[in-house]
Design a protein that fits this description.
The chain is mostly beta strands. It contains 3 helices and 13 strands, in the order αααβββββββββββββ. β7 and β8 form a beta hairpin. Its EC number is 5.3.1.15.
Length: 225
């Protein structure tokens, strides 16, 4: 991705966040220059990859496959220094974009429509060998439990949420004509390196073409203290 595209996406998400009255932590607003003065007292941000994350899954088709997100808080399963057992994210998904089909080996999460359009979450159970199971999926949405056929898209309007359990395949996209969606995610600790099982093997972070200075640093770019 071009840095100019990443910068534009971040500014779009900042506008969407403001539109829906959500406030983010101060570190989400720091410039690259401000990061140079941040000492070891901010290592939780560095070590747990908090902050901005713009992903095209290495496919180079961000407007079709990918989204913008902020990790607001997260524990760390590989470092005993951090004892939080939970994580929280904020995501922006535009019409025409989708997140690829995947499940988590260990993480349970709630995906929440915080505002904007409607999001469609497609769900499957997984077989033991990682294929789609042709079995009904038990869905939990805001205190209601019900079953849907394999491959059903569960529609979440603003304020609604769905619980995603380990080994539950899911992808998501925006319902056409409803506009960009601000999603929340509340979950167990997030571990992108080890806990994602994509149905079709893909990457995670973009290769960046530095065509202009960074507006915000991504969570993989912080300078060491």
């Amino acid at each position: 991705m071009k840095r100019s595209k990443i910068n534009a996406v971040i500014k779009d998400m900042e506008a969407l966040i403001k539109e829906h009255g959500f406030e983010v932590p101060p570190f989400c607003k720091w410039t690259a220059e401000e990061w140079k003065d941040k000492g070891a007292e901010y290592d939780e941000i560095r070590d747990n990859m908090l902050g901005w994350d713009i992903t095209d899954y290495g496919l180079g088709k961000f407007d079709e496959v990918g989204f913008a997100l902020i990790t607001i808080r997260n524990g760390n399963l590989k470092n005993d220094k951090y004892t939080k057992t939970y994580a929280e994210k904020l995501l922006m998904v535009n019409e025409g974009q989708m997140a690829p089909m995947h499940f988590h080996w260990n993480k349970m999460e709630d995906i929440i429509n915080r505002g904007g359009g409607n999001v469609l979450i497609r769900v499957y159970n997984s077989t033991e060998d990682g294929a789609f199971a042709d079995t009904d999926v038990t869905v939990n949405c805001d205190g209601r439990e019900f079953k849907v056929p394999a491959g059903t898209q569960v529609r979440l309007t603003p304020g609604e949420s769905i619980t995603i359990y380990p080994y539950m395949y899911h992808d998501f996209n925006v319902e056409e004509g409803t506009g960009a969606v601000l999603l929340g995610e509340v979950s167990m600790c997030n571990d992108d390196e080890n806990d994602n099982r994509f149905y079709d093997p893909i990457g995670r972070f973009p290769t960046i073409d530095e065509d202009e200075p960074a507006y915000r640093l991504l969570c993989t770019e912080y300078p060491k203290a």
